[in-house]
Amino acid sequence: MRREMIAFVPAIILAGYWIGLEAMILLGVTALAVGWMTRPVLPSDDLEMTTLDPATGLPLRELALPMMDKIMAEARTSNRLTSCFVIAIDDPQNFTANTSTREFDDTMRRSAERLRSVLRDSDYIARLGGARFMVMLKPTPNPDLESMIQLSVRLQSTLEEPLSIGGRTLSPTFHIGFCQMSRSPKPDAESILDAAEIAAEEASRNGTSAIRAFSNEIRRSAEIRSALSAEVGDALENGEIVAYFQPQICTDTGLISGMQAMPRWLHRDRGVLGETDIMPAVMAANLRTRFYEVMMFQVFNGLKEWNAREELVGVISLPINEELLANPKMPERLQWEFDRFELPADQIRLVLEQEIVSKLSDDMISHTLSACRKMGCKIELAGFGSGPASINSVRNACAERIRIHRSFVAHVDHDAEQQRLVAAIISLAEGLGIQTIAEGVGSIGEHAMLAQLGCNHVQGRGIASPMPLEETHDWIARHMAKLEKTPRLNTRRGS
Questions:
Q1: Which are the contacts of 492, defined by CB distance < 8 A and separation ≥ 6?
Q2: Transmembrane ranges (predicted)?
Q3: Most Cβ neighbours (<10 Å): which of 97, 123, 284, 364?
Q4: How many whole angstroms separate alpha carbon 322 and alpha carbon 357?
Q5: N- to C-terminal Cα separation, the chain
Q6: What value, to the nearest 5°, has the Cα angle with vertex 169 and ends 164 and 172?
C-alpha cells in the first residue's frame, strides 16, 4: 500500500492488454514481492534508541528488564547468583533545583562513567529515570552480603568525588539499596528490581550516603508506612505524636539560642518514629492542619515549662506550611495560644518551609504572615540557597534569620568549595542585616568551621540529637555547666 507501488499500475494494465491475463497476474505478484522486500524496516539499533537514555546512553527500565531476566536465567543455569543495585542521589529535588538541565545531565553522564570504571565490563548498568541508576552483576559463585556491602562502598566513594561541571564544583552524595538474588521475593527481574528500590528508599530515609540491603524487615517497614496513614488520626488525638526538641547554639557565646521542634510518634508497637514516617502518613490522611495544632500545643507547653524553671532556651522554632499560612484564622489561633499559656509572641519563630517561599506574593499568605509579624513572632526562611528563596523572598517575608541547608554544611570542615558557598551565603545575610543558622551540623569540625566563617547559630546531631521535653532539662544543665568551665577570651569576632 506504499505510494511507490502506483508506478507499477500502468505496467500491469498494459501487460494484461498486450500479453494476457497471465502476464498481468505475474507482473502484479512480482510488484507485490518487490514492494514487500523493499518496505522500510526500522533498524534494531533505532528500536533500542527509543529506550536509551539520551544523557548517558544507558538503557532505560523498559529495555533493562528483559536483559535482567536473561542474567537471572544465566545465573540459574550456571548455578550461580547475581545481585541488583539501585543507586540514587540524595535529596534529588534539592540537587535538581540547584543545577541547570545541562549540569544535571552532565552529572548523570559522568556518574555513569564512574560506575562503569568500578564495575566489570560484563556487569549491566541502566538508568531508572531521574537521578537513579540500576546495576545488575554478572552471575558469580556465592556473592555474600559482606562483598556486596564492600562493592557498595566502592561505588559510593567513587561517585561522591567532587565533579567539575560548567565551571562549578558539584559534590552530590548517593544512597544505595541492593537485593541479592537469593533474597528476591520472586526469581524474576521485576521482583528483584522492586526489592532493590525498596532498599534504596529505606537508605534514603536514613540520612546521606546510606546503604541498605533488602530484607524481609525492610519489606515489612515499607508495608508499615502504608499502614501508618490509617493510624495517624488516632495517634494525634491520643497524644502519641509529640514534639521533640533539638538545641540551637550561638557560635559567639556557646549559649543556647533556641530549640527546634520536631515531631516524633511514640508508636506502641513500632517504637519512636521520625518525621520521615509521620509526614507521609499525615498527608495521606489529610490531617496536616490537625498535626500542626498538636505540634503548636506541644511547643507552647514546653515554653511554659522552661520559663517556669527559669531555663534560658531562647526562641523556639516551629516549622509551618502553606496550608497554615493560607488560613486567615491562623493569627487568631496563635494569639489565643499565647494568651492561654501567658507567653510573649517573640518566643516563637515561624520557620517557612521551602514550598511557601515561592508563594509569598499570594495575598492571603502575605496577609497572614504580616499579622503574625505584628503580633511579635519571628520569621525564618528554611533551606536558603537550595530552593526558590531569593533576596525578594527575604524582603517580603521580613525574615530575621535564614537557614543554611544541610547540603552546604556537609563536609564544610575540609571541602574548600563548600566553605566558599557558605561564606557567600553568610556574607549576603550580613549585608541584609539578618542572622544565619546552619542545620545538619554533624561534627565538631563542621561546627568550628561554621563559627570561623561567621555563621551565627548551629544545629544538628553534632550538637545534640532531638530529645523529649523531659530530657531537655538535664541537657541544659550539663551544657551550662560545661560553659562555666570553659575559659573565656575578652575578644570580639574579627578583632
A1: none
A2: 12-37
A3: 123
A4: 9
A5: 88
A6: 100
Residue 341: partners with Cβ closer than 8 Å, 6 or more residues away:
300, 301, 303, 304
DSSP 218-283: HHHHHHHHHHHHHHHHHHHHTT-EEEEEEEEEETTT--EEEEEEEEEEEETTTEEE-HHHHHHHHH
Instruction: Report the C-alpha gap between 301 and 297 in whole angstroms.
Output: 6
Euclidean distance between CA atoms 298 and 244, whole angstroms: 9
Output the nine-digit C-alpha cell for 290.
490537625
Cβ atoms 241, 294 nearer than 8 A: yes
Angle at the Cα of 204 from the Cα atoms of 198 and 207, rounded to 5 degrees: 145
**Structure-model confidence comparison of residues 10 and 152, the more confident one:** 152
143 or 298, greater pLDDT: 298
Q: What is the DSSP string of 409-461?
A: HTTTTT-HHHHHHHHHHHHHHHHHT-EEEE----SHHHHHHHHHHT-SEE-ST
Report which of 316, 344, 352, 320 is spatially closest to residue 459, judged by C-alpha positions: 316
Mean pLDDT to the nearest integer, 368-390:
80
Helix (H, G, I), strand (E, B) or coil at 478: helix
As separate numbers, helices (DSSP H) first and strands (DSSP E) second, the chain gives 20, 17
Instruction: Give per-residue pLDDT as tens, 443-493.
Output: 999 999 999 999 999 999 999 999 999 999 999 999 999 988 877 655 444
Q: Residues near 408 by Cβ (< 8 Å), separated by ≥ 6?
A: 385, 386, 418, 421, 422, 425, 438
